[in-house]
């Protein structure tokens, strides 16, 4: 008898478990009716707009009611927003939750806590590569090198799809530990690093001789146009009559900074135009007041985005001689949008851009006037500023010297 009662109890319990997934959103609302008078009237257009989220709301009701622990509502919303953007299948469209939004602004200011690397994602392979290791940082001390490809950051497999998550983990509070793994020449190398305060320098510059100036611009981020202009003015005061601008490994950044820098060298010219999915075009011009100094631009396969906008424009107008290797080919532009809570935001791709003469940059890149490939054994080497054992810089210097003859 006891066994029969036990079997009956188990059958009822199993039936309850099997029936639970069959609960619907409609039964949930039937069991949780709105209070009398607790109604809102909306237009049919608004109703149809909200109705597309019906399944999402259905899932959330299940989670809110039956999940075995009290869910964190903010994390649910963060995940929902990121999930929506991931549906675009675009590595450059993603969500900044509150912490990441704050960190993004800190990075733009040039000061943050982290490990001290600059990285670039390849939208074709999904690989995320270190393109610069900042001086006097945990990354440099640990032995990370330009060209290392991220494998993991803590328990995250690093791809272009998870790159922002990896960045968020590598940022934080000085003294925190972070474990990463990179691939270098086919070998997986583990690193344990301690986060520290990082100060990013946007430019480095010097006179290579009494005639040729040299400016390295590392990225188009907060204050980069002002830093470049200050360096340019300083070199001009030292008697510069030709300039090498080094955009190698520059992943881009704010397009406006690129326009400001091009404005130094182009008089009221179209620098690029953006085209959205409807085919509508928006054109961007420099202003009057250019300088006619001869220019040589250095680029490589990691020169991307704003670097390509400026390089393509100066090449189209034959305003600069471009030397190096074909650029990365990121010819798309993102908006960075703050959300109404004033503490989070997102970015998404809204258009692709073209050079003044109509050349497509996205997935095509910019081909230099003079191709100079970096030897394989030198690709991960860090050259001191102005080091002429750098074959690409040496060729650019040779070209710049012609303007002084």
Question: Can you give a write-up of this model?
Answer:
- The protein is α+β, with helices and mostly antiparallel strands.
- It folds into 2 domains: 111-199, Pdz3 Domain (Roll); 203-404, 2-enoyl-CoA Hydratase, Chain A, domain 1, CATH 3.90.226.10.
- The chain contains 12 helices and 19 strands.
- The strands form 5 sheets. Strands 10-11-12-15-16-19 form a 6-stranded mixed sheet, with helices on both faces. Strands 1, 13, 14, 17 and 18 form a 5-stranded antiparallel sheet that branches.
- α9 packs parallel to α10 (255-262) and α10 (255-262) runs parallel beside α11 (306-316).
- The longest helix is centred in the first third of the chain and has 18 residues, at 2-19.
- The radius of gyration is 27 Å and the shape is globular.
- The chain starts with a helix and ends with a helix.
């Amino acid at each position: 008898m006891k066994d029969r009662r036990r079997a009956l109890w188990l059958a009822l319990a199993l039936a309850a478990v099997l029936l639970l997934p069959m609960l619907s959103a409609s039964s949930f609302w039937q069991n949780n009716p709105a209070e009398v008078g607790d109604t809102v009237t909306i237009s049919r257009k608004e109703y149809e707009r909200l109705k597309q989220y019906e399944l999402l709301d259905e899932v959330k009701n299940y989670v809110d009611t039956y999940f075995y622990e009290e869910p964190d509502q903010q994390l649910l919303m963060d995940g929902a927003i990121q999930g929506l953007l991931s549906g675009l299948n675009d590595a450059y469209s993603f969500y900044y939750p509150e912490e990441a939004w704050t960190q993004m602004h800190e990075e733009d200011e040039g000061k943050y806590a982290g490990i001290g690397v600059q990285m670039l994602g390849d939208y074709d392979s999904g690989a995320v590569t270190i393109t610069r290791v900042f001086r006097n940082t945990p990354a440099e001390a640990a032995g990370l090198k330009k060209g290392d490809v991220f494998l993991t950051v803590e328990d995250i497999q690093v791809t272009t799809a998870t790159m922002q998550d990896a960045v968020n983990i590598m940022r934080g509070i000085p003294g925190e530990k972070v474990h990463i793994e990179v691939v270098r020449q086919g070998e997986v190398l583990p690193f344990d690093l301690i986060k520290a305060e990082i100060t990013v320098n946007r430019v480095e510059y010097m006179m290579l001789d009494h005639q040729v100036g040299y400016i390295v611009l590392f990225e188009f981020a907060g204050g980069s146009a002002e830093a470049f202009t200050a360096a340019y003015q300083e070199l001009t005061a030292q008697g510069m009559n030709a300039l090498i601008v080094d955009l190698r490994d520059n992943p881009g950044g704010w397009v406006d900074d690129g326009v400001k820098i091009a404005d130094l060298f182009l008089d009221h010219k179209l620098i690029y135009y953006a085209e959205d999915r409807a085919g509508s075009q928006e054109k961007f011009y420099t202003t009057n007041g250019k300088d006619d100094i001869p220019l040589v631009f250095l680029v490589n396969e990691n020169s991307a985005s704003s670097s390509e906008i400026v390089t393509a424009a100066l090449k189209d107008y034959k305003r600069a001689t471009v030397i190096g290797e074909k650029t990365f080919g990121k010819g798309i532009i993102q908006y960075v949008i703050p959300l109404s809570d004033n503490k989070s935001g997102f970015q998404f791709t809204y258009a692709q851009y073209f050079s003044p003469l109509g050349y497509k940059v996205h997935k095509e890149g910019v081909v230099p006037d003079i191709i100079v490939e970096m030897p394989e054994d030198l690709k991960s080497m860090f050259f001191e500023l102005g080091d002429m054992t750098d074959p690409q810089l040496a060729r650019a210097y040779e070209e710049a010297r012609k303007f002084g003859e």
